[in-house]
Amino acid sequence: MAVADALRSWLQSLMLALGAGVCHQLPQRSFISGGLQQPVCARCSGIYVATIFGLAALWWLYRRQSLRQSTLQVGSGDIPLPAQLHWSYWVFLVVALVAMAYDGFTSYLQIRPTTDMIRLITGLAVGAALAPLLLALLGETLLSPRAGGKILARPRDWALYLGVLTLAGLVDYPLGQFLGLTVPVLVTVCLVATYAVIVLVVLGLFKRFERRVGRLRDATIPALIAVAIALILLMFFALFKTALLAWFL
User: Which of the two residues, 240 and 5, has the higher pLDDT score?
Assistant: First the structure.
């Protein structure tokens, strides 16, 4: 029992440390699953979960479409992802950002009350808007070759995409209340993975990595580097925030 409690305590400390620099982590605004507080608040958890689930959904969607069009062979490791964004994406992005800003500012100014569910939904919307943008940026920097067409150009693509993100939100809450430690760990993985993807976009700007990933196996080394850098950045953000608070308070 003592060992299990020590492991839970260590896991909680690790998760909170990784999220400390990028979120306020107020307990009253964070989901608790399996007795552990998630590494970020309800809104931020929605952003990170939707970003990674969204990227996975888009990869599956366009790989499936490419297989149907016989441009890939079954078992191929090619990455058949379009790199251009459809105009409907920009409409969705604006609506998501406005909704989150409205909820955040009006609740902060005490104009209207809000809830963790509303925070989660607005976070999911912004994460859903972030995933296609990151995919497009990867297509411009790291990935090669790229498929034709545009991201989320068809209504059924949107339906599938938003369906996956709705499922991600349900896993976060309310199903997270019954799935135990799995959900805080999942949110932590999504947190690190989101920053790792951002790092991958930046890595693609360097000659060594530019347009070098055409198959999944080509992404192994860049992905490992990106995860390492993401972990370092998250810990740096946490230490920097702690230093600032100590300085001003």
Answer: 240
Structure-block tokens of residue 184: 């805080």
- The owner of tokens 């599938």 is 160
Preceding amide of 132 cis, omega within 30:
no
User: Which SS3 state, helix, strand or coil, does residue 34 take?
Assistant: coil
pTM over 0.85: yes
25: left (phi over 0), alpha (psi -120 to 50) or beta: left
Q: What is the tens place of the pLDDT at every residue in 141-163? A: 998 766 667 899 999 999 999 99
With CA atoms as reference, report the closest residue to 170 among 53, 59, 81. Answer: 53
Residue-level pLDDT at 74: 46
pLDDT confidence of residue 68: 63
Q: In the 8-state DSSP scheme, what is residue 143?
A: B
- The letter for the amino acid at 210 is E
Q: Which residues of 120-143 are buried (b: 16+ CB within 10 A; e: fewer)?
A: bbbbbbbbbbbbbbbbbbbbbbbb
Residue 174 preceded by cis peptide, ω within 30:
yes
Looking at residue 70, the DSSP 8-state letter turns out to be T
Tell me if residue 218 falls in helix, strand or coil.
helix
